[in-house]
């Protein structure tokens, strides 16, 4: 059984979907802990499923490296097979990435390598494209530059706002994430073959 740690910053909608999937008896993975870099509403989802949580508040550390060292200590306690970034709105220090990659994955609301970074949905609208998408990647030390594990196109409508487009991308992200975790847990997707 694949053990998974999930790191969040916000409401945890992807986390909730993954918890529900992992609650199914035939799902080949289970979430063992949820961590965050700030007080996150998504902790409520973990608590609802009886999953332990930990908090490593970024602002309490003098720099990103020190924060990363504490985050790494918490992850090592649980020794998960896979770490999922689920709306963690902070770049991980290279030391954390190096410790976990390629067993470190993230979702992104764009069809990478198109529109990387924190504003993928806004950037797609600003570019006037007719379609964008969602991606699941292996995290590397760049910004959304790691190997792509799964992705799917999402059409951009003429009346889309950043909010409406993002709301249509989110379910695709969730589905792709659940499928990737399922494939890893079932042995159908070997992360060791992806180098970062």
Description:
The chain is α/β, with parallel strands linked by helices. The protein folds into 2 domains: 100 residues, Rossmann fold (3-Layer(aba) Sandwich), CATH 3.40.50; 75 residues, Rossmann fold, CATH 3.40.50.170. Helix content is 36%, strand content 22%. It has a 7-stranded mixed sheet with strand order 3-2-1-4-5-6-7, with helices on both faces. Helix 1 packs parallel to helix 6 and helix 3 runs parallel beside helix 4. The protein starts with a strand and ends in a 10-residue tail after the last helix. It catalyses: N(1)-(5-phospho-beta-D-ribosyl)glycinamide + (6R)-10-formyltetrahydrofolate = N(2)-formyl-N(1)-(5-phospho-beta-D-ribosyl)glycinamide + (6S)-5,6,7,8-tetrahydrofolate + H(+). Pathway: Purine metabolism; IMP biosynthesis via de novo pathway; N(2)-formyl-N(1)-(5-phospho-D-ribosyl)glycinamide from N(1)-(5-phospho-D-ribosyl)glycinamide (10-formyl THF route): step 1/1.
Strand order of the largest sheet: 3-2-1-4-5-6-7
- Calculate Rg over CA atoms: 16 Å
Query: Order of SSEs, N→C?
Result: EHEHEHEHEHEEH
Which structural class matches the secondary elements? alpha/beta
In the CATH scheme, the class of the largest domain would be Alpha Beta
Largest sheet: 7 strands, mixed
Named CATH architecture of the largest domain: 3-Layer(aba) Sandwich
Task: Determine the number of helices (DSSP H or I, runs of at least 4 residues).
Answer: 6
Broad shape = globular
CATH superfamily of the largest domain: Formyl transferase, N-terminal domain
Specify the helix fraction band: 25-40%
Our estimate of the beta-strand percent is 15-25%
Give the count of structural domains.
Answer: 2
Count the E strands: 7
Could you give the distance between the termini? 25 Å
**Named CATH topology of the largest domain:** Rossmann fold
**Could you list the spans in which at least 5 consecutive residues all have pLDDT below 50?**
none
